[in-house]
Each structure stands twice: as C-alpha cells, then as structure tokens.
C-alpha cells in the first residue's frame, strides 16, 4: 500500500491550527497571572508530549507501509513516546518541573524533521509533507522552548 504525501488545504490549515494550544499555553505563562501560570505550564508540557508521541505514530505507520524504509524506523517511532514519558518523570518524583521537561520535549520536536528526512530519503513525493512538517515541528519546538524560558 502506497501512502500519498499530498497535503490538502484542509490538512495544511489544521496543521497550523495545531500550534494554537501551545500559543495559548505560552501566553498563559507569559501573563505571570497566578490564575493562569500553572495551567499554562501544564498545557505546554502535555501538548508537546502529545504531539511528540503523535509523530512517533506517524513514523510507525510509515514503517509499516513502506517496505524499503530503514530498519531503524520502528526504533525511531518508539523513541518519541519514551521521551514524552520521560518528560513527566521529574514531576512524578517531586523534582523541578516543568522547565527541564519542556527543554527535553523541545529538543525532540526540533529534531523530528531530521528523522522525517532520514526516513523519507529518496522519496521526492514526500517533499510537500516534509516542508509542512518541518515548519510545524520547528514552530512547536520553539514555542515549547519559549515556555521553558519564561
């Protein structure tokens, strides 16, 4: 089964709309309003972790549908979920949270376009999807990093 990499206008709009929860979380943190501050931290950590695991699911799906894909694809597909889980460990054991978690998640998000490029090397039909994914991942990664710095 071949997967189409064409990006529809609806998918493009929904992709960009996917940055809105992180923008809202960063705005809540930046307000320094005690009523919103902690909620903003929670939103940014949870949303970044959720999206990182989603990307792993995309890579898993690609590895199942592309017989010529690297044998490392399933490994790459599992790592984001482990990173996302790891980002919650500081809060589980009472350590400083969530700034280290936000940095860890931002690194994962910012590195994800590199994984996309490696997994889809030699597939020129993936270019439109890769371009959108790169912009969205960098945008979400930078927003997550901004949340860590506020």
Task: Explain what you see.
- With 150 residues, this protein is mainly α.
- It has one domain.
- The protein has seven helices and no strands.
- It has helices at residues 9-17, 20-30, 34-65, 73-86, 89-92, 99-119, 127-149.
- The chain is globular, with a radius of gyration of 16 Å.
- The relative contact order is 0.17.
Write a brief caption for the model:
This protein starts with 8 loop residues before the first helix and ends with a helix. The chain is built from 7 helices and no strands.
What is the number of domains?
1
Structural class: mainly alpha
Total E-strand runs: 0
Indicate the low-confidence ranges by residue numbers.
none
The level of helicity is: over 70%
Succession of helices and strands: HHHHHHH
Tell me the major beta sheet.
Answer: none
* Morphology: globular
Give the arrangement of secondary structure elements.
Layout: H1 9-17, H2 20-30, H3 34-65, H4 73-86, H5 89-92, H6 99-119, H7 127-149
């Amino acid at each position: 089964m071949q997967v189409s990499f064409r990006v529809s206008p609806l998918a493009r709009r929904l992709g960009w709309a996917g940055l809105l929860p992180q923008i809202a979380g960063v705005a809540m943190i930046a307000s320094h309003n005690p009523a919103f501050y902690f909620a903003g931290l929670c939103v940014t950590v949870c949303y970044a972790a959720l999206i990182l695991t989603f990307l792993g699911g995309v890579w898993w799906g690609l590895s199942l549908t592309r017989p010529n894909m690297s044998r490392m694809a399933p490994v790459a597909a599992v790592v984001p979920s482990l990173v996302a889980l790891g980002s919650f460990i500081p809060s589980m054991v009472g350590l400083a949270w969530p700034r280290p978690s936000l940095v860890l998640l931002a690194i994962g998000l910012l590195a994800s376009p590199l994984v996309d490029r490696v997994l889809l090397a030699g597939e020129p039909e993936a270019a439109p999807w890769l371009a959108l994914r790169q912009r969205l991942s960098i945008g979400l990664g930078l927003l997550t990093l901004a949340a860590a710095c506020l």
